[in-house]
Design brief:
By secondary structure, the chain is α+β, with helices and mostly antiparallel strands. About 35% of the residues lie in helices and about 35% in strands. A 7-stranded antiparallel beta sheet has the order 4-3-2-1-7-6-5, sandwiched between helices. One of its GO terms (cellular component) is early endosome.
Length: about 150
Amino acid sequence: ELPENWTDTRETLLEGMLFSLKYMGMTLVEQPKGEELSAAAVKRIVATAKASGKKLQKVTLKVSPRGIVLNDSGTNELIENISIYRISYCTADKIHDKVFAYIAQNQLNENLECHAFLCTKRKMAQAVTLTVAQAFKIAFELWQAAKEG
């Protein structure tokens, strides 16, 4: 369910929307998309994160039509900048419903990676997913406009 003012977020989204999340980790995946695929990847990441017993890294995730920018919340240090064109899938996990995950292609080695993040609420995981979906849509519209223009 989207907030009523969702349509107003297009402007905000062009600037980039910020989410405060906890980074759970990454695992390699075989395919660029798929619900079962991402669910299995999230399950592996959650298990690994729990087993390590380490505190999760607090991160700021900025979503815009350019892609996703990850920064460390404490130091504000850039962790990763992922182009929207390298992201093939994003989801709010069904079982771990506070988990937002995306699959993207690594720029250096072309590996497909699933990255998972812990949100404070289930609604937030859904919001991040929807925001990334919106960003895709806008990026596509901008790309089309550029192509025609």
